[in-house]
Each structure stands twice: as structure tokens, then as C-alpha cells.
Request: fold
Amino acid sequence: MRTSGTVPKWKLEKVEELSRLIREYPVVGIVNMENIPARTLQKMRAKLRGEVLIKMSKKSIMQHAIEKAAREEKSIAGLKDRLRGQPAFIFSKMNPFKLYKILEENKVPAPAKPNSIAPRDIVVPKGETPFSPGPLLGELQALGIQTEIKGGKIAVKKDTVVAREGEVIDAKLANILSRLGIEPMEVGLDLIAAYEAGTVFLPEVLRVDEEELRDQLALAYMQAVNLSVNSGFLTRETAPIAIAKAYREALALAVEAAIPEPGAVDRLLTKAHLQMLSLATKLDDSALDDELRQSLSSAAASASEKPVKEKKAKEEPEEEKEKEPDEEEAAAGLGALFG
Reply:
């Protein structure tokens, strides 16, 4: 900047004002105001009032304001390289990620202009149009849009993609989209960069998929719990899970080793009874007493009836009822396991 003797006073005051705001606000952003209609900008300012402060100025003045603020905090000088298009400062107390999200949510639809880039796949939807048959019919067909005449009006037969994301929209397509009332573009404040606590954040970092992030956090939490429990490094959250796991393992060990601990006695008795029935199926009938013979006979009958019941259940599904398996069914099913 030239010496103060030749620089207009208003410029010096503007630089001082902007540099002061840069120092005062915890978050300072650069937004691109290019191609935003004045009326749209006014609506955005009204929506964002109280959330952000937008200050427009010449690039040279903004550069000098950044340089002046950088005398106290060098890291903010990184914003100088982000002054593109028609830049403006945006000041806020919200974090850069929330600021980026709010600016994106406040963008409004806008018609496509010739040579603009499709922000996403552009679709001409199926349905009737307000236009009578005429030159437009041929123009639509030239774009690969299948049409027909319904009630004296042109109708689109099916949804048709007329431009893929990243493709250039030519003048003909822009005109057709405008006539059909399709506004594929978005007009709003594009956050080019945001500064906070010594770091300059760019859009690719601030653009966060919240659903994906939530899923990643949930997965990380489950993995951390799993690591904590299996490594024995317990925390307030994982101690109850580890205690329950240890109890189940101790109970399984007691049953397997036939240790008659209070919590394992019932399971040991059940296991022994099933093993007894399984062994009895391998003995000669003469070695069985009447009670045991009756138990085995009932178990065999239950086993033979089970496929019939299952078939009937498939043919005539009934409401399921919770039922504890009886000893005879268990004996028939577990015979091979304990043999």
C-alpha cells in the first residue's frame, strides 16, 4: 500500500475496521459472492442475521487487512491466497464446520446458464408440460427426451438424465431447462476457506457427511468396547460387560469341569440327565427298567412326531408360543452329541 499521505482516508479506515474484526472474531471466512443477485443476497443476509457478519470490499483492501492482522497472528496470512472471484469476509462465532453447513443449507435454486457446470445429474422428470406441440417437441427429442402428446400438450414419457454431474451445460440445454422450469443450479455463499485457532480449513475438509460420520463413530465405539473387554483394560462403560462375560465363561467352565458351584448345579443335573438318556439308547432293552424304558419310548415318539408337526406348521402357520424343551425331546436331539 502507498504511504498514508497518498492513500485515501476511507481506505485506511476500511483496512483498520476489517483487521479489527479479524482479530475480534474466532472464525474468519472468505466467501465468493460471484453471480449472486442482489435480491438473493439480501434474503441471505436476513436469514443469517445474528449468526454471521458479512463484509464486502475490494481485494486489495482485504489483502491489506489480512496482512495487518497477521502481524499479531502469522497463521491468518494463509487466507490471502483464498481471495478469488468476488470475495468477501464472513465473521462468526460458530465453528467452521457448522458455518459451512449453514451456508450450504441457505443456498437457493437457480436456472442454469450457458457453459455452467452441472452440480449433479440433471433430470427432466416424467409428466406433462404446459407446452403445445411445436418446435419445442423437436428440441426435446434432440436431447434424447422421449415425448408424446397428451390432451393437446407435450408430455415426457420417462425421467431422462440430460446432463451428468460435472458436464458443461450448453446454451440449448440451458434454454430448455429454463422453459421447463427446472433450476438445477444453486446460488449462495460459497465458503472458500475458514480460519480458526491457527488453522485454515478448506471446503473439502468442512464438507462432512453426518450420517457417514455417525456410522464411523458408532463402529469406533464398538471396536473400542471390544478391545477394552478382551484386553482386560476396563473402564466405567465396559466393566459391566466384562463382568457379565466373565460370569458366563466361569459358568461354562464349571459345567464343563463338573464343578458343583451354586449357579452351575441345575445345568450340571440337566447335562447329566441328558447324557444318561443318550447312553440308555445304546443299551439292550433287557438292561432297562420300566421307568427308563418308558422315558425312552416317549422320547422316540416325540422325535417321530416332530417332523410331522414342523410340516403342519409350515402349511398352517400359527402364532408362535414360547416353550421350554422337555427332557424327552432333548434326549432325542442330543443323543449323538453325548454318545
